C-alpha cells in the first residue's frame, strides 16, 4: 500500500465501525417509542462505540508516525476521491475522547431533556459519528463532508433545546462557522487543482510556491481560527455555549473546538509549512491575546456558563501557542491541552448543568454558597476548577507546563505573558469557586446533592484529571513519534 | 532505594481515613497521624530516597539531610501540638485541610528538586486557605480569597523561575544558589520564596489573612507557611545580601505595627513578620552560625508563636473577641491560659531560661561576628518592641488592666493540654538547648548563657519594662493623655507613638490598600473593561455585519415587485451596464 498508510491489521474495519456504530444506533432509535428506551439505547450504543474505539488505542503502534488502521475504498474515482481513513498519533486520543464524551453527554441530559427526546439523542449520535469521521478522514472531500455534517446536529441542539436566546445563538454559530467552512472549501479546491488529488497525506510537505502556501494557509486558517476559536473570532462561542443545552456545551467544548487546532496540526503545518512559519509570530501574538484577554473577560462574568465558555478561549490559546512554537514540547503540550481541555471543561459544563437543573439559574449569585448543602458536588466542582487553572498534579498542569516550556523557548516575553494568563486563570476560577462554595449564607436547603447517575458521569472526568496529571506517560509516548516526525519535517523549512 | 516512608504520605492517607470515624475513635486516629510521623522522623537516616522518573525528569521526594531534618522535627512536633489543640473540632473538612497543609509542608521540606517542591508548595497554599475559610465569616472568606490569589501569584513566580532554571542548567535539582551567578531565574524563585516568608514588601497577605483564620487553623498557619519558606531560603539563598537587609527591616517593621494594633491575633501576625525577619537576616548573613541561628530560631519560634496563637485563640474562642479594647482582667477567669500566653510571651521576648533566648541571640551574635553592627543594633531594637507589644502590652490589656464586662471560662481541656505541652517545650529548650543545637545543620560552638549575654538581656528587658510602665496609658487601646512626672521619657515615648500611629502605621495600611486595590480592584476593573470591549466592539462588529447584511437584503427584496415590467427594465439596465463596461 501507500507509504504513508499501514492498512488495518484487524479482521474488521475498525475505524468505519467506530464511525458508523452511532449511525446504526440512530437507525434503531428511529423505531423506538418510549423515551426511556431511547435513552437507554443511545447510552448503550455510545458506550459500545466507546469500547470499540478503545481498540484503536490498544492496537495502536506507537513506534511509527504512519497512519494506521488504514481503510481505502474508491468513492468517486473520476475525481480521485477516496473513502480513505487512518489514525496517527495526533488523532489516536481525540477519537476515544469523542466516544467517551458521547455517553457522558447522554447521561447528563437524562433528566434535563424532556421534550423531543428521540430527536435529541439522534442529534447526539449523528454528531458523534461526524466528529469521529473528521478525526479519521484522510481525504479532503471526506473530511469536508464530516466537517460540515457536524454543524447541523449542533445547530439543532442549540436551536431546539437551547436557552431563551437560542435563535440568536444558533444562527450566529451556524453562519460564523459556515463562513469559515467556505474558505476551507476554497483551500481544498486549490489543493486539488495543484495536486490532482484530494489525498491528505500526499499533500503534505511538498514544495508548493510560497504565495500558494500563504493563500491556502489563510483559507484554512480562517476556518480553523473560527473553530478554535481564536481572538477576535471568538464571540460566537460564548453565545453558543451559554444557550446550548448541557450536552451541547460539553460536545462543543470537548470536541468541536478541537477541530480547529486539529486542523492546524493536520493541515496547516504539514501542507503549508513555510506559510505557517511566516504566520507564526501573528498566531502566537493572537494566542497570547486570547490567553490574557480571555482571562480578563472571564473575571468579569456573572454567568457561570459564560465564564467557562470564555475560559475555553484562554485555554485554547495555549493550544495554538504550543502548536506555533514548532517545538516538540509545544506540540506535545498542545495535544495534551486539547485532551485536557476536553476533559476539564466538559466536566465543568456538566457541573453547571447539574446545578442549573436544581436552581434554574446560571447566575453565580443565585448559586452562591452551595458548599454546605451539596458537599459532594462541591468536591467535584472544586477538583475540576483547580484542574482548569493547572494545579500541579492535575491534567492541565502537565500540558500547560509543556506549552510554557515551549513558550519560554520561543521568547522570554512570550512566556511571561502566558504566565500572566495562568495567573488570571487562577483568579477567575477561584473567584467562581469561592462564590459557589462559600458565597452566601441564606441558602435554599431544599437542594439535594449529587445522585448516583450524576456521580457516575462525573467520575470518569475526575479519573482522567488525575490520570493525565499523575501518569501522563502513556499519552505522551503514544503521540511522540508522530509529533516528532512532524516537528522534524517542519524545522527543515525554518530558514 | 529502601523502604522509606514519606511522612507527607502518612498525613495524606491518614487524614483521608478521618471522615470515616466518629467521636473518640477519630480523636485517637487524629493523634496517631502526628505520633507516627514523629516516629518516622526520629528513625530517619540521612540520605536520598523516593526518586521517581516523571516525563523524563528525575524527581526526588526524599532528600533527608541535617537541614531538612531539623525543620522536619519541629514540624512534626508542632503538628502534634496543633492536633491536640484542635482535637475538639468536629468538621472533618477542617481537620483534613490542616493535615494536608502539614503533610504538604513536610513534602516541601524533603523535596530534592524544584518540581516536587512546587507541587507541595501549591498543595500547601490550597489546603491552608481552608483553615481561613472554615471560619465562615464574610471577612474570612474574602481574606482567604486574597490569600490564595497572592499565593498563586507567588507560586507562578516560582514556577517561571523554575522553567528558566531548567533552560539554563538542564536539570531541576534544588541546590544552593550563588549570589554572584544569580540572574532573572534565581530572583524569580527568590521572589516566590520571599512571598511565603512575608518578606517586605510582599508581606501584606499575612496580617490580612491570619487574624481571620479559625482559632485552630491560625495555630497551624503561623507555624508552617513562613517556616517552610525560611527552610527553602536557607537551602537555596544563604548569603544573599538582600535577605540580610530585608530581614532586619522586617524585624523592625513587624514590631512597629504590632505596638499599636488592637486585635490580639493581629499583633501576633505582625510579629511573625518581625520574627521571621530574624531568620531571613540570618540566612542573608549566611555564615554557619547565622544559618544555624536561623534554623534554631525557626524551631523555637514555631513553638512559642504557636503557644501565643493558642492563647489568643483560646481567648477568642471563649470570649468571642480578640480585641484588646474589649478585653481585660481575664486572669481571674482564665489563669491557665494566661500562664500559657505569658510563657510564649517571655519566650518570644528572649527571656533567659526560655527558648527565644537561646536561638535569637545566635543570629544577633552572627551579625556581631561578621561586623554587621548596624544590623545587630536594629535587631536588638526590634527585640525591645517585641517585649513591649507581645510580652507586656497584650498580656496587660488582655489579662490584667481594667476590668471588662466579659466573663469567661478556661477553654476546653485539650487546648489547655496543648498549651501546657508547648509551654513546657519552650522552657526545656531554653534551659537545655543542647538537643536543639545537636540537630542544627552545622556544628555548633555557641554558648547562650554567658555573663555578657545575660546582662545584656536583662538590661534590654528591664528598660523595656520601664518604658512600658511609663507608656502604659499611652499604649492603651483607648488613648487618654495623662500628664506624668517623667516628662522626658514621656515626650520621647509620645513622639515615638505618634510617629508610629501617624506615619508608619498609616503607610502600611495604605500599602495594604494598594495591595488590595492594585491586586484586586484594578484587576476587576480591567476585567469589566474587557467584557465591555468584547460585547460592544468585537461582537458589535460581528452582529453589526449581520445586521447590515439583513438590511441590504431587505432593501434588495423590495426590487422583487412581482411586476414583469420592473424585471425587464432591470434586466435591460444590467445588460447595458455590462455592455458599457465591455466597450469602455
Features:
heterodimer; A: 495 residues; mainly alpha; 3-stranded mixed beta sheet; globular; B: 584 residues; 20 helices; 2 strands; 3% strand
Q: What is the overall shape of chain A?
A: globular
Output the helix-strand order of chain A. Answer: EHHEEHHHHHHHHHHHHHHHH
Q: How much helix is in the residues of chain B?
A: over 70%
Structural class of chain B comes to mainly alpha
The interface involving the most residues is between: A-B, 43 and 38 residues
Number of helices of chain A: 18
Give the helices and strands of chain B as they follow along the chain: HHEEHHHHHHHHHHHHHHHHHH
Oligomer: heterodimer
Contiguous uncertain segments of 5+ residues of chain A = none
Short structural description:
The complex is a heterodimer of chains A (495) and B (584). Chain A has 495 residues and is mainly alpha-helical.
Describe what you observe in this structure.
The complex is a heterodimer of chains A (495) and B (584). Chain A is mainly α and 495 residues long. Chain A contains 18 helices and three strands. In chain A, a hairpin with a 4-residue loop joins strand 2 and strand 3. In chain A, helix 8 packs parallel to helix 11. The model of chain A has no long low-confidence stretch (mean pLDDT 89). Chain B is mostly helical and 584 residues long. Chain B is built from 20 helices and two strands. Chain B has a two-stranded antiparallel ribbon with strand order 1-2. About 2% of the residues of chain B have low confidence. Chains A and B meet through helix 6, helix 11, helix 15 and helix 16 of A and helix 5, helix 6 and helix 19 of B.
Secondary structure topology:
The complex is a heterodimer of chains A (495) and B (584).
Chain A: E1 5-7, H1 14-30, H2 35-58, E2 67-76, E3 81-87, H3 94-108, H4 117-136, H5 140-161, H6 166-195, H7 200-203, H8 210-227, H9 236-243, H10 246-271, H11 273-299, H12 304-323, H13 328-359, H14 375-388, H15 395-410, H16 412-438, H17 452-470, H18 473-491
Parallel strand pairs in A: 1-2
Antiparallel strand pairs in A: 2-3
Helix pairs in contact in A: 1-2, 1-4, 2-3, 2-4, 3-4, 3-10, 3-13, 4-5, 4-10, 5-6, 6-8, 6-9, 8-10, 8-11, 9-10, 9-12, 10-11, 10-12, 10-13, 11-12, 11-16, 12-13, 12-15, 12-16, 13-14, 13-15, 13-17, 13-18, 14-16, 15-16, 15-17
Chain B: H1 7-17, H2 23-42, E1 47-54, E2 57-64, H3 66-85, H4 92-110, H5 114-133, H6 138-169, H7 184-196, H8 205-209, H9 215-236, H10 241-260, H11 264-285, H12 288-319, H13 335-348, H14 355-369, H15 373-399, H16 413-431, H17 434-439, H18 451-475, H19 487-557, H20 564-583
Antiparallel strand pairs in B: 1-2
Helix pairs in contact in B: 1-2, 1-4, 2-3, 3-4, 3-9, 3-12, 3-16, 4-5, 4-9, 5-6, 5-9, 6-7, 7-9, 9-11, 9-12, 10-11, 10-15, 10-19, 11-12, 11-14, 11-15, 12-13, 12-14, 12-16, 13-15, 13-16, 14-15, 14-16, 15-18, 18-19
